[in-house]
Design goal:
Number of strands: 4
Helix content: 40-55%
Oligomer: single chain
Strand content: 5-15%
Order of helices and strands: EEEEHHH
Number of domains: 2
Number of helices: 3
Distance between the termini: 46 Å
Strand order of the largest sheet: 1-2
Largest sheet: 2 strands, antiparallel
Length: about 130
């Protein structure tokens, strides 16, 4: 492969940002990355900052947070308990007005409870506690 700027020179590497072939004269090494220009260095730096911010938000790598119950799983668990509780309460307290609405609430409550445990299991496997 030839250098992008010097067509006669042999390329020694590829720019990490724009993927152009670079010779010894053109390539500038910054933070163990080969870059061709200041623009590419700036873009690479911005991408590293975005990745670092994402790692901080999701608690990945050095920013890994303590393991706990993910808020989404906790929300679905509470929602399931409310639905199932309301259905059971109506079923027990008002047997005269027996309706399919009671089973609707109980069913959705059970579905939400199961979903919360599935979400918790998935979150502990992937390490993302949201």
């Amino acid at each position: 492969m030839r250098c992008y700027n010097h067509k006669t020179a042999e390329a020694i590497g590829i720019c990490c940002e724009c993927h152009k072939g670079l010779c010894e004269k053109c390539g500038k090494e910054e933070k163990s990355h080969l870059l061709c220009s200041q623009e590419c260095a700036q873009k690479w730096s911005e991408k590293e900052q975005m990745n670092d911010c994402a790692k901080r938000i999701y608690g990945i790598g050095v920013y890994q947070k303590r393991k706990g119950i993910p808020l989404t799983a906790l929300f679905f668990l509470l929602l399931g308990i409310l639905f199932a509780g309301w259905g059971i309460y109506n079923f027990i307290m008002y047997p005269v007005f027996f309706s399919s609405f009671d089973f609707f609430f109980i069913g959705f409550g059970v579905i939400f409870i199961i979903f919360s445990f599935l979400y918790w299991h998935r979150a502990t496997k992937t390490g993302l506690n949201l």
